[in-house]
């Protein structure tokens, strides 16, 4: 319910049902399925958005409506998370979200998965349950302590949840924050707002001594999963998570002043740092001296249209240069920048 409320109160596109027109193309790390889903008919995107609201805003309350409603909740939530896993590389988030829903399925619900003949596992478990009910053992000290601990934990969680519930009911709901130092009860919600255009930062290097010469040849570094070469197929890595690729998505709709770590990365590329290069898929200077200059270029990316000219050329993406993200940098120029921030100087700096 938290994620649903954050969406409804956040981006207008969640209210006018148009967010899914953009999500597949602009999500952090799209996969091949996202390419085809992005080109679905408009009515399908409206249906997706309505389904999202139904599952995130209404289905959670099925937990309080009895056994059958709880089972329906479990089925819908697991199917919903499976769709999210198939349609994007959202790391292990959706896999973990499935786990609580497994509690919705009791023994009677899952019984069909096990053989039921005489002497079978299911038959033995049922006999054990009948024996336990018939014995009615007296409560032991350990069970009393455990029950007291469970009640105490429930009271603690209820108390810690008070500010969370107040935040939930507030018209100024805060997303992705905590309300106590223990971080036990928090608020979380993904994609409260949807970016409408996809920007990418492309890191390039050159061996030329003059970075500003018009005939300077710049070569692209390729990341393991994020869009770069328009002809490279989107990757499929869930539940694995390439954190650097994810951070590059955030950096692309900000500036390098907000993400000075990207200048740190540029310095390591100038020094051909082995650890930094291991995070990339392609180093254009492999087996050669390191680049003399590294720069960041800002591009706008869009999925190519199936059957269109770019798709016929084998391109998954169409990109257009926006401008410079950060100017050409050399190791010598980065010396004071690194020292001011207390960063170790890479390579021969």
From TrEMBL:
The chain crosses the membrane at residues 78-96, 148-169. GO terms for biological process: protein maturation. Residues 4-110 form the Lipase maturation factor 1/2 N-terminal domain. GO terms for cellular component: endoplasmic reticulum membrane. Its main location: endoplasmic reticulum. It is a multi-pass membrane protein. It comes from the Eukaryota. It is found in: Endoplasmic reticulum membrane. Keywords: Endoplasmic reticulum, Membrane, Transmembrane, Transmembrane helix. It holds the Pfam family LMF1. InterPro entries: LMF (IPR009613), LMF1/2_C (IPR057433), LMF1/2_N (IPR057434). Residues 184-327 form the Lipase maturation factor 1/2 C-terminal domain. Involved in the maturation of specific proteins in the endoplasmic reticulum. Belongs to the lipase maturation factor family. PANTHER family: LIPASE MATURATION FACTOR, LIPASE MATURATION FACTOR 1. This is Lipase maturation factor. It comes from Pan paniscus (Pygmy chimpanzee).
């Amino acid at each position: 319910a938290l994620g649903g409320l954050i969406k409804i109160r956040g981006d207008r596109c969640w209210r006018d049902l148009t967010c899914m027109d953009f999500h597949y193309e602009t999500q952090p790390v799209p996969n091949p399925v996202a390419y085809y889903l992005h080109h679905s008919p408009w009515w399908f995107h409206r249906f997706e958005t309505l389904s999202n609201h139904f599952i995130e805003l209404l289905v959670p309350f099925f937990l309080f409506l009895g056994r059958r409603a709880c089972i329906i909740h479990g089925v819908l939530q697991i199917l919903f998370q499976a769709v999210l896993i198939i349609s994007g590389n959202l790391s292990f988030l959706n896999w973990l979200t499935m786990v609580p829903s497994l509690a919705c399925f009791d023994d009677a619900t899952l019984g069909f998965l096990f053989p039921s003949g005489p002497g079978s596992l299911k038959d033995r478990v049922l006999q054990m349950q009948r024996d336990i009910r018939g014995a009615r053992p007296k409560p032991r000290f350990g069970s009393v302590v455990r029950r007291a601990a469970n009640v105490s934990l429930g009271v603690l969680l209820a108390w810690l949840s008070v500010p969370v519930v107040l935040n939930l009911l507030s018209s100024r709901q805060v997303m992705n924050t905590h309300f106590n130092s223990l971080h036990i009860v928090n608020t979380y919600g993904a994609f409260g707002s949807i970016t409408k255009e996809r920007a990418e930062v492309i890191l390039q290097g050159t061996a030329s001594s003059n970075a500003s010469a018009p005939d300077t040849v710049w070569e692209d570094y390729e990341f393991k999963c994020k869009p770069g070469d328009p002809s490279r197929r989107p990757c499929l890595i869930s539940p694995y998570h390439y954190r650097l690729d994810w951070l590059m998505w955030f950096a692309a709709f900000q500036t390098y002043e907000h993400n000075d770590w990207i200048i740190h990365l540029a310095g390591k590329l100038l020094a051909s740092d082995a650890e930094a290069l291991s995070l990339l898929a392609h180093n254009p200077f492999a087996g050669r001296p390191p680049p003399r200059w590294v720069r960041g270029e800002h591009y706008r990316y869009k999925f190519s249209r199936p059957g269109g000219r770019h798709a016929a050329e084998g391109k998954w993406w169409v990109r257009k240069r926006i401008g410079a993200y950060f100017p050409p940098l050399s190791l010598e120029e980065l010396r004071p920048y690194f020292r001011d921030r207390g960063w170790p100087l890479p390579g021969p700096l």
